[in-house]
Specification:
Strand 1 and strand 2 (29-37) form a beta hairpin. The protein has one helix at residues 8-15, and strands spanning 17-21, 29-37, 40-48, 54-64, 67-76, 82-94, 97-106, 111-120. The protein has an 8-stranded antiparallel β-barrel. Helix content is 7%, strand content 63%. The chain has one domain (8-113): Lipocalin, CATH 2.40.128.
Amino acid sequence: MGCTEPTSASIASAVSGSWVRVEEHPGSDFEMSLVATGTSLSGTGNFVVEAGPQGTMTIEGAVSGDTVNLDFTLWSDLPDRAVLSISHFEGSLVLGELRGRTVSYSQSADISFGPTVFVRKH
């Protein structure tokens, strides 16, 4: 018997769980927990930006083929609960890590692009 290719649903299932982003900036943190339903993903998380805001996030996404797409809505905790930014991650599950690129859109219309790696939270 030969090996079978993973399906979108099996990849989504493998992505379920707790993840933390590998940060380039000390003092920053980005953690999320994802749940799969078929090929759809949803979750919540928390973030802290060094010398900046902190808050919670909601995550919605899906797996299409072998591509993992996640949309993050980041909510600041202070001074008022408001949407801080919306980000889109597109990547894939590689050797147990989520690797890809993130595009972020902030309230000030700043747009940032960058490589992103998430690892399992232990």
